Amino acid sequence: MSMEIGINLEYIRSEDKPFPVAVERAAAMGYRFVEPMVHNGRELLSEAGYFHSFSMDDDPLEMKDVLDRHGVRASGLSAHCPLMRPEISVPYLQKAIRFAAAIGAPVVNTDEGIRPAWVSPEEAFPVMKYTLKAVLRIAERYGLTVGIEPHQAISATLDGLLRIATLVDSPFLKINYDTGNAYLAGEDPYAGLQAVAGRLVHVHAKDIALQQSQAERGAVTGTPVGCACGDGVLDWARIAAILRDAGFHGVLSVECGTTGQARRSLAHLTDVFARAGVAHA
Questions:
Q1: Residue 266 domain flag
Q2: What total number of domains does the chain contain?
């Protein structure tokens, strides 16, 4: 795979539309990769067609049928869960890995989650290590990667992110770098990308509006979605050059909040790739 541009389906959440509509619209805009979100059990908004998340209790080939019908592929699954709660995250991530394998997604993206009050900071890392070891047994069998995203208190820093992503010695434990989360946490996203390049499997292409940057930078550990790539404070030409020079082959999955932002992001990143000499589908 070359470096590609994809879209996280969170962009449709502001319109209360279901998964098939999100995929159909992404394909119509010109995206060839999408990042679906999955959940356990039954959930009212998704059941009623007002939310894009897809239940893992449903047949994964139903999801694949929708993707195939619109000529798109899954860059990965958004499967965030609390790594410090193994009673939840071990079965959930194992199920997500099997689901991802059925639809042809190469990576399951997650983060550490919020540390429970009953887990001390000293206990957090051995608990996460246990969770990841149990999950990676399944990931290695299926040949899928688990991507750790910077999003909560520990992974908000580069050192914390790398510590989580190296808790288990496995080539299937890598990093899904979120540019916007890193920036809002007060990190340097360009230096961060360079530092994790050897462990990078997937990128959340999230830009941050100037107003949000001024209000929240250094005070939060992430944000659900950003603005359109090119409308915010991040330098996408610089990001593309870092990834190109690092030999990254994978998907930049845009995380924005509206269809208009998704459309502008694709146009901007396509232009950036062309100027950087990055070939993509």
A1: yes
A2: 1
Q: What is the pLDDT of residue 281?
A: 67
Tell me what the mean pLDDT of segment 4-25 comes to.
98
Quick check: 162 and 197 in contact, CB under 8 A?
Answer: no
Confidence (pLDDT) at 2: 86
Which tokens hold the place of 240? Answer: 């593309």
- Choose the weakest-confidence range: 21-30, 123-132, 224-233, 272-281: 272-281
pLDDT at 280: 76
Residue 272: exposed, middle, or buried by beta-carbon count in 10 A (0-12, 13-18, 19+)? buried
Q: CB atoms < 10 A from the CB of 193, how many?
A: 22
The domain spanning residue 71 has which CATH number? 3.20.20.150
pLDDT at 262: 98
Q: Decide if 263 is inside a domain.
A: yes
pLDDT of 176 reads: 98
Where in the chain does DSSP place strands (E)? Answer: 4-8, 33-35, 38-39, 54-55, 73-74, 77-78, 107-110, 145-148, 173-178, 200-205, 251-254
Which structural domain, as residue segments, surrounds residue 202? Answer: 4-276
CA distance 8 to 205: 9
Q: Look at residue 281 and tell me if it is in a domain.
A: no
Residues facing residue 245 across a β-bridge: none
DSSP H helical ranges for 144-280: 158-164, 179-184, 189-196, 210-216, 236-245, 259-276
Does the residue 255 lie in any domain?
Answer: yes
At 57-98, the pLDDT tens digits run 999 999 999 999 999 999 999 999 999 999 999 999 999 999
Pairing of strands 251-254, 200-205: parallel
